[in-house]
Design brief:
single chain, Lipocalin, disordered N terminus, 418 residues, 2 domains, five-stranded antiparallel β-sheet
């Protein structure tokens, strides 16, 4: 009896295992078919990528929502122009003034110059005043505290300027690749370190006392600049200077009507308006390389090689802001095709006191679509649209002014089909 039950249970167990095996085989076959289908589909997609169509709709300021739609169907790329040259500008259509020194696009200078053939007695008198001012600086250097500081530091260069409206002086001491700015108060006979900087490149130091601050310039391959106010607060201005201002030349600093003039030993004259730099030496039409340059009031005194002096009277009114001007780019999308959308994602500019309009085109400027920085433009024509360009049109509020609208760099993103 027992053996019959055992045999019966054994037969049931074998039958259950057989059924389970058949069930497992079925599941395995189904899974293999599904996996094979996915593999074939993936290979098809890789060979023939599908591009989701973009539905044209009005541009929105919500970049995130557009980003999801665009990334679902288009490949993205970026472009940046820092205006270190005019390589990406359509110079035939651009009438904004390009300044190579400050690498800015701005409105043109408003400067009149006239050479004076005979020396005016007033000019001679002012030239004498320069020597007088220099002797006063020499007397400051003889003060015991300053003498001790100079001996201790053993500097390569010493520059000094008085602080307007006080009994204080700024003293600059330099080494090959470093400089320090000290304040000396005559009433307290106290020296205080305000600024110390170690630099990557050798340079020369210049100081200029202004009505409420002292301007510090480190003339070097990469020029540095600082402003020290009446409370000895130091502000770094170096971003407005950079690579093309001086190149390790000795410099002299002057101020006339709010402009700072940086006169390089190499003959260049840079004007700084507390925001941007622009070269103005071309306004004097030098046909020679000056041995030295001095500015006294509104006169420029240039020493001519092999003897002689030329004097130029000039009036610097700032910038001519009359009319509307524009900048237009060349093609910036390289070899990619079918530009579907674009966005001016960032722009470094000073255009506050002006009416500024921004445009994008994907067909080489045949059709322009107005936009604003941060807004995505989705082009209606996306087939064979292979020439992406940008344009900025500026109308200032003022006719002639100390400040100008300017553009320093532009960065944008665009989307295209492959």
């Amino acid at each position: 009896m027992f053996l019959k039950k055992l045999k019966k249970q054994t037969k049931k167990l074998k039958k259950r295992k057989k059924n389970n095996f058949r069930y497992f085989i079925s599941i395995f076959i189904i899974s293999a078919v599904i996996a094979t289908g996915f593999f074939v589909y993936a290979q098809t997609i890789n060979k023939n990528p599908q591009i989701l169509p973009i539905i044209e709709k009005p541009p929105l300021n919500n970049v995130q929502s557009h980003q999801q739609t665009l990334d679902g169907g288009l490949f993205s790329a970026t472009f940046t122009d820092g205006f270190s040259s005019q390589a990406w500008l359509d110079v035939g259509q651009t009438d904004l003034y390009f300044d190579w020194t400050g690498t800015n696009l701005l409105f043109p200078l408003s400067i009149t110059t006239k050479e004076i053939t005979t020396q005016d007695p007033l000019i001679s008198e002012e030239l004498v005043q320069i020597s007088t001012d220099k002797s006063q600086e020499d007397s400051i250097l003889s003060l015991p505290e300053i003498t001790e500081l100079v001996i201790k530091k053993n500097p390569k260069q010493v520059v000094i300027t008085s602080i307007n409206g006080s009994n204080s002086y700024m003293i600059g001491l330099t080494q090959e690749k470093a400089f320090e700015i000290w304040e000396y108060k005559t009433t307290e006979k106290n020296l205080k370190l305000l600024l110390g900087k170690t630099t990557e490149y050798a340079g020369h130091l210049a100081l200029l006392s202004r009505h409420d601050n002292v301007f510090v310039l480190w003339a070097s391959y990469f020029t540095l600049a600082y402003r020290i106010d009446d409370n000895n607060v130091v502000k770094d201005l170096s971003d407005s200077f950079g690579w093309r201002i001086s190149s390790n030349n000795l410099v002299k600093l002057y101020e006339i009507d709010g402009f700072v003039y940086i006169v390089n030993e190499g003959g260049s004259i840079i004007r700084y308006n507390d925001e941007i730099n622009v070269s103005i030496d071309q306004e004097f039409w030098f046909t020679y390389q000056p041995e030295s340059l001095e500015i006294i009031d509104n006169y420029l005194i240039a020493k001519v090689p092999k003897g002689g002096t030329k004097i130029y009277q000039f009036e610097d009114r700032g910038f001519n802001l009359q009319g509307t001007r524009q900048v237009v780019s060349k093609k910036v999308n390289f070899s990619v095709k079918n530009i579907g959308a674009a966005q001016i994602s960032n722009i470094d500019a000073g255009v506050e006191n002006s009416d500024t309009k921004y445009f994008l085109s994907n067909d080489g400027g045949l059709n322009w679509q107005e936009t604003t920085p941060g807004q995505i433009v989705i082009f209606s024509n996306q087939d064979d649209a292979n020439d992406l360009r940008w344009k900025i049109v500026i109308t200032p509020d003022n006719g002639i002014a100390h400040e100008t609208p300017y553009l320093s760099s532009i960065h944008f993103k665009y989307w295209h089909r492959r």
